[in-house]
What we know:
Blueprint: H1 3-15, E1 20-25, E2 37-42, E3 45-54, H2 85-95, E4 102-107, E5 120-125, E6 130-135
Antiparallel strand pairs: 1-2, 2-3, 3-6, 4-5, 5-6
Amino acid sequence: MRPTRFQDFALDLAKNSPDCGQARTLADTGVTKYPYGLSATASGREIQWQFIAQSRDGDKFTEPETITKAEQPISLEAVPDGGLPEERWFAELLARSGSEEITAFELWSPRPNNRKGHDGVTVFFADSARIYARVIG
């Protein structure tokens, strides 16, 4: 999934989530340092995410996006145990979508040797693309 479509997807999920207050793109909040991202109010506080994309092998942004479906839709069972509340919230938000493109998640904070303050979620897709969703605020 390309970053523009992922940002729109995550924003739509957050806006329609009962446990989320306001949700906007980072650009809509005035944060222009990062091209893609989300700001959402969850658990009574604002959380900001930067989205960094790793395209699928051979992807060319000059061509229409090819969508690859996984063998089964993603579910809450795919969210690993542990992690920080903001990491779990974001992974669970995506997992509840039942997306047929997402295959797995990795939460960063429980990783051995994870740097302090380096928190987020890696989202893996059926087409080998990844989104690195980094908590920035």
